[in-house]
Amino acid sequence: MSNPPEEKNRSVTFEVESVLDAIPKATSKLFDFLADCAISEEEHFNLRLSFEESLINAIRHGNRLDPALKVKVQMTLTEARLYVRIDDEGAGFDYQNLKDPTEEENLQAYSGRGVYLMKHLMDEVRYSRSGSTVEMVKILDQQGQ
Amino acid sequence: MDVLFKDRDGIMMAEIQGEINISTSPQLKKDFEKVTAPKVVINLAKVGYVDSSGLATLVEILKRARARGGTVCLTHLTDKVRSLFEITKLDKLFNIQADDQAALAQLK
């Protein structure tokens, strides 16, 4: 995972409660942060989906909906890239052995598509801290700018 | 999220309005638990956003229809929603048609 260059960065950090109802407000903060960027409708959709999937994982699977635990969101914007880091306080998960949801035998499975979608819709996705941290990068098209 | 159900010669036509996400999926699942018709057409023209729990719920609705000896046809997918079905290869699992008329022609 490439780190954000130090110059011309803009960053924001905030905490999210471990309740699913907190997700829309967190998503609003993401797009407030990107308000000056001319992101396309497709980028908006992809960013929203990847951000919300990662938050859902952190809140539900990481912190197990424990209101005493928080999810930390860090976002950094450079001229052309958005870096998002999400940390939960849970025990993590085995991110190295996820089943491929597109395999024939997994197509009808209930779960397993969230991380798969994130990896397709973002330019980089990396887990660390036993799966309690996810870092994602999106290269922004900056259309019209 | 709302669902409008209409029976058309024994085929259940369902039109979903709104997002199918982690918040609305439980209600969607509940709404479809009342459906007993084996053949179902789900119009997604007014669904602009689906997350992984929404996809999972649609798979559950399909599995229930198949358990009744039927199937589910999806229609009017927006480009972005269709792309999610393609990425996850759920387009291989579902019968996806351009519109309700094409779906009815398939199911009759």
SSE run of chain B: EEHEHEHEH
User: How would a crystallographer describe the biggest sheet of chain A?
Assistant: 5 strands, antiparallel
What is the SS-derived class of chain B?
alpha/beta
Going by helix content, strand content and strand pairing, the class of chain A is alpha+beta
**What are the secondary-structure elements of chain A, in order, as H or E?**
EHHEEHEE
Rg of chain A to the nearest angstrom?
15 Å
Q: What is the CA–CA distance across the termini of chain A?
A: 26 Å
What would CATH call the architecture of chain A? 2-Layer Sandwich
Instruction: Report low-confidence residues of chain A grouped into runs of 5 or more.
Output: none
- Kindly give the count of domains of chain A: 1
Number of strands of chain A: 5
User: Strand portion of chain B, in percent?
Assistant: 25-35%
Average pLDDT figure of chain A: 92
Helix percent of chain B reads: 25-40%
And the CATH topology of chain B? Transcription Regulator spoIIAA
Number of domains of chain B: 1
- What is the mean predicted local confidence, pLDDT of chain B? 97
Write out the strand line-up for the largest beta sheet of chain A, numbering strands in chain order. 1-2-3-5-4
Please name the defining characteristics of this protein.
heterodimer; A: 145 residues; alpha+beta; Heat Shock Protein 90; 5-stranded antiparallel beta sheet; 3 helices; 5 strands; 28% helix; globular; B: 108 residues; alpha/beta; Transcription Regulator spoIIAA; 5-stranded mixed beta sheet; 4 helices
What does this structure look like?
The complex is a heterodimer of chains A (145) and B (108). Chain A is built from 3 helices and 5 strands. With 145 residues, chain A is an alpha+beta fold. Chain A has a single domain (10-139), classed as Heat Shock Protein 90. In chain A, strands 1-2-3-5-4 form a 5-stranded antiparallel sheet, covered by helices on one side. In chain A, α1 crosses α2 and α2 runs antiparallel to α3 (114-121). With 108 residues, chain B is an alpha/beta fold. Helices cover 39% and strands 28% of the residues of chain B. Chain B contains 4 helices and 5 strands, in the order ββαβαβαβα. Chain B has a 5-stranded mixed sheet with strand order 1-2-3-4-5, with helices on both faces. The longest helix of chain B is centred in the middle third of the chain and has 16 residues, at 52-67. The radius of gyration of chain B is 12 Å and the shape is globular. The mean pLDDT of chain B is 97. The chains are: A alpha+beta (145), B alpha/beta (108). The A-B interface holds A 20-21, 23, 41-42, 45, 48-49, 52-53, 56, 101-102, 107-111, 113-114, 116-117, 120-121 and B 21-23, 49, 51-53, 55-56, 59-60, 62-63, 80, 84, 87-90, 92-93.
